[in-house]
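Recall from the previous chapter that SMILES is a line notation for molecules. Here it describes zinc ion.
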Amino acid sequence: HSLDHEHILSGILRCPLCGSGMYGNVNRKKKKDGTLYKDYFYYACKHRRLVDGHKCGYRKQWSEEKINNAVEEVIRKLVKNPKFEEAILNKIGSRIDTEEIEKEIEGLEKQHRQLTGAKARLGQQMDSLDIMDKFYEKKYQDMETRLYRLYDEIEGVENSIEEVKNRLLNIQQQKISEENVYQFLLYFDKLYDKFTDLEKKEFLNSFVEQVDIYEQEQPDGRFLKHIKFRFPVYFGDRETQELCWDNESTVECVVKMVHF
Ligand SMILES: [Zn+2]
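With both inputs in hand, we obtain:
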């Protein structure tokens, strides 16, 4: 009985009152003859967050099917945009600009070579100090102090190199997951309906960051208020990462424009 069911937008859908994630639930009821009614899956607020000092009191239960369908419909619309395919293909083929970060690594590695070179030379000087020199002890101590400073500097540079390399890796990984999502979006219409609930959930989690709804369905039947994506999408001929639906009109408005 609905064993394969996944609450696809659990945590992504936000409570319109307190803003925390709404989670999937199931209503499983027995008929008088002992057989089960069809499972009813719904999203609801867990009432964990306080609003004005009180636990959030949003009680409405939203049908999962209804919300999921509406979000999927938005994505279907996005991918049908003729500009979309062109923009996505450009995006996939494009190289990420990591020149600056690579220069930074190069600079740090050069610094590292200079410091280790200085350390080696200093070591040789210390070895070749004349033990009969009357300032031997003082000279040796001075050199030792310089040596310790060099060790500190080398360690600092090594830490910086590691930090910058991690930053580069993150950028590259972000690019890979972005490309996977875009690749999939190109075939969204053909693939999505064949997905299991789990695959749908995984895909939507990698693409959609947040879905906001109105407290109640609007008189014209709308209830989606705002969707935030993890990656830029194409709307009309604009690139954007968020879509919102104006309260006054049915016309979608695009927020947070990105130059495209
Ligand atoms: Zn709430």
